[in-house]
Specification:
This protein has 148 residues and is α+β, with helices and mostly antiparallel strands. It has five helices and eight strands. The chain is globular and about 40 Å long. The two termini are 29 Å apart.
Length: 148
């Protein structure tokens, strides 16, 4: 009998402040707290733990071509050991290349922005990327919606 796989990354009741306080590296913890404040301000949403390690803000429903649906934060981040991972709209690298050029040192992956230190990036460019992501996920941007 086939069973439906339940998503692991869903909102939890865990406290964001406790999660951030437990980040072992002092600099990474400070960056995470600052990034949390930036995301809260730009999105206008409260911080919520999604699964054990993602701090998300708001949510949107996505649908894959197969018809499978799910929920994901409008924007979010995770303070990993080596870098901060910021979760943005898929394809942002192509959509917002001019903003990324202003950002400073970073790496990108499928819907992910990797930052070593928050002080090394242009905060206005980061805020713009977050705002554009939220607008796409809310359907108020002309760019097409993306799957995470």
């Amino acid at each position: 009998m086939a069973t439906s796989k339940q998503p692991v990354t869903v909102p939890t009741d865990a406290r964001v402040d406790d999660f951030l306080a437990a980040v072992p590296d002092e600099r990474r913890r400070a960056d995470a707290e600052r990034l949390c404040a930036i995301l809260r301000e730009v999105t206008g949403e409260s911080a919520v733990m999604w699964g054990p390690s993602i701090v998300g803000f708001g949510s949107y429903r996505y649908t894959y071509g197969s018809g499978r649906t799910g929920d994901w934060p409008l924007a979010g981040f995770s303070p990993r050991k080596q870098q901060l991972v910021v979760y943005l709209v898929g394809g942002f690298e192509e959509r917002h290349a001019s903003v990324l050029a202003r950002l400073g040192p970073h790496k990108t992956g499928k819907g992910c922005l990797y930052l070593k230190r928050l002080d090394d990036v242009d905060e206005s460019a980061l805020r713009e990327l977050i705002d554009r992501t939220v607008r796409v996920h809310k359907g108020v941007d002309r760019a097409s919606r993306s799957r995470r």
